[in-house]
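Final report, closing paragraph on structural work. Over the funding period we assembled a curated collection of sequence-structure pairs, and we close with a single example.
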Amino acid sequence: MYIYIAIMAYFVVLFLTLRDIRIFKRTRIMSYRKGALKGIISSFIMLIGVILTSLNPELGLLVVFIGLYTNRKGQREVVFVQANALERLLGKTDI
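Its predicted structure, as stored:
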């Protein structure tokens, strides 16, 4: 059960990182570039946590939590003006 939680958290971070990459590609706003770089680093940490979860669930989930903590993005510029929730989720911008 713990491995499924770790894998789900890993894929969520990868999805959000890909969304940041797509927004940066469209807008060239540097805060989304920083967010994508943080996402890549934290996804690597979380991948190590997923591997460790199969060996030791407590240690692995701790590493996954550390990866989630390093994924904090900070303040962002407004790129969604009239986008609905699905468009925001997929990274479509109004700019």
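The CA atoms of residues 21 and 36 lie 6 Å apart. The chain has four helices and no strands. We thank the funder for supporting this effort.
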